[in-house]
Amino acid sequence: MNVLNMEFDTPYNSAPFSNIKITDFLPAFKTALAESKKKIIAIVSNPEPPNFKNTVEALEFSSLRLDRISSLFFNLNAAETNDAIQKIAQEVSPLLTAHSNDVALNKSLFERLKIVYNRLENLNLTTEQKTLLEKKYKGFVRNGANLNPNDKKRLRKIDKKLSVSKLTFGEHLLAETNKFRLEINKTSHLEGLPENLIAAAKLLGEKEEKKGWVFTLDYPSYVPFMTYAKNRTLRKKMAIAFGKKGFQKDSLDNQELLLKIAKLRHIRANLLGYKTHADYVLEERMAKSPETVLGFLEDLKAKALSVAQSEYKELSAFAKKLDGVETLQKWDSAYYSEKLKKKRFDIDDELLKPFFKLENVLEGAFAIAKKLFQIQFIKTTEVDTYHEEVMVYKVKDEKGKLVALFYADFFPRSGKRAGAWMTSFKPQYQLEGQQHRPHVSIVCNFTKPTKKSPSLLTFNEVTTLFHEFGHALHGMLANTNYPSLSGTNVAWDFVELPSQLMENWCYEKEALELFARHYESSEVIPMQWIENIKAAGRFQQGMQTLRQLSFGLLDMSWHGQDPSSIKDIKAHEKNVFKSLQLFPDIKENCMSTAFAHIFQGGYSSGYYSYKWAEVLEADAFAYFKKNQVFDTEIASKLKTHILSQGGIENPEVLYKRFRGKKASNKALLERAGLQ
């Protein structure tokens, strides 16, 4: 029998990656789909009157195996893909969409669910059970259960097209990233670049049998190149290559796909009775409506714009004085910002990096989690992984009880998409009296160790690791009954609270002393540097805020209106950015065609949530700061009321229980220097 369709006979029921062949996935999916369909038929044909247990709970657990296989497969497709996996993804995505529609549009199943839902007030249900029932019922309604037969067919076709289109959009971006190479053969063109970056580029050149140094669009190569390369022409070349992904009118062009996705989402929303895709999405978010989101973004824009304009003028003057740059361009931003930051705060990422050895930073995150939540991380080799670079840790509480498995995958590979993310191989839930603990993973793209040095992180990479670790804690500390309400299964504009909150400890003396030690001398990072890092936290906050707001507004421009009138993607984008623009436009580049978050990921009508959650996070950390950063009582409240609760209750209610009041944007504005 296919190993994927069996109960895993492994430590902690972990995924047996070494025993899984790529060819196993498609038949495993088909078997699991058939199994799930049988369970749905059993629910519908049950002669007993519908109740919470035989209908709602039965539905919740009807696709456990299928969901497990899906999580393994699509995580591999993101972190370790190849042509064979991508081919299976193209084949299986429509099958999964069709199954999802089969369930959502099953009239008999919906009727049973409706009977239970209409008796909600008379049922003796827990808060979590009520939430599950409401979410299941709303899920059916929001996915077409009340549509007529013809419209149900239309919905199926739309969803099938969307699943394939989104998948292809992401495949194009990965291929674009992997395709580009900047080969340097003159040592003079390496001026300004850090030694470890040069060494990594040399290693890649040797691997690809090139004479010189090879740089790529992967973040660990691209970001430091743009930050430190003195050669302006090469920075320009890299910036244009990075920004024109999916915008080159070739086989990897995303323009038609983008328009197709946006239009299909709008048509789908209309079919379900909503004005726009944004109206559909936001109904189930904290924000509730596009008007609220736009008001939120515009309010922040009003506070950030003048500050950002002043910062841009200052940076322009600095670049002109230093190197005679007449017009500051986007490919100049990181380079001169780094130099100005160094001058003002005496901070240099290259001076800081020796204090942020990857292994030490990770152990620091573990130590902070132990102080706050009394959990410990124990490295293990008894759990299988999908790549030799992946590390696994057993997470245990103060009594030695297993909390979770934690996977960490840190380095770029040709089969790994760019960026950083948290994911799950197995959710937390309870079934038949047995507690199932989660298997959580964070995936990043940090600089690999070289022959001369270990993996040393920039401070931005340190905060990235802590950010994803915050998501992981949200997953690991989950303590609910149902997988669909567990861990990070919360309102999208609430999900970034734990991740962004965790970043704050990177700026605190008591936290940094735990891990910020020089990798050779073990010297603790100088305390003055810590103060400088904190002061630098406000550096160019106006520009950074404006950049994030521009992405949020771009997202809403695609999803908060009928996009069918948009013919020229670039022109549309320029119009959106007009009131926020600081740098001259680059005609070869287009943000939308590379905007994986909203066209491939789950952030459509949701990019604003980063800033929304930032308000919550700043308010939450102000609570810690009012007392102490390692206040165990406040940490316990955070764990009890937010991290363990998943999506079992309205997030505003959960936040008020933790904080004792509604969140205010005062802490965020003060921290960013926007007030």
Description of the structure:
With 675 residues, the protein is of the alpha+beta class. The protein has four domains: 3-146, Glutathione S-transferase Yfyf (Class Pi), Chain A, domain 2 (Up-down Bundle), CATH 1.20.1050.40; 180-243, no CATH class; 258-324 and 538-675, Orthogonal Bundle (Neurolysin, domain 3); 354-525, Neurolysin, domain 3. It is built from 27 helices and nine strands. The chain has helices spanning 25-44, 52-60, 64-79, 83-104, 107-118, 127-142, 149-179, 195-207, 219-228, 232-243, 255-271, 277-282, 290-323, 330-345, 349-352, 358-373, 459-476, 496-503, 509-515, 527-536, 541-559, 569-577, 596-599, 609-626, 632-643, 651-659, 666-672, and strands spanning 182-184, 213-215, 375-380, 391-397, 402-409, 421-426, 429-431, 434-436, 439-443. The strands form three sheets. It has a five-stranded mixed β-sheet with strand order 3-4-5-9-6. Strands 1-2 form a two-stranded antiparallel ribbon. It has a two-stranded antiparallel ribbon with strand order 7-8. Helix 1 packs antiparallel against helix 3 (64-79), helix 16 crosses helix 19 (509-515) and helix 18 crosses helix 24. The longest helix has 34 residues, at 290-323.
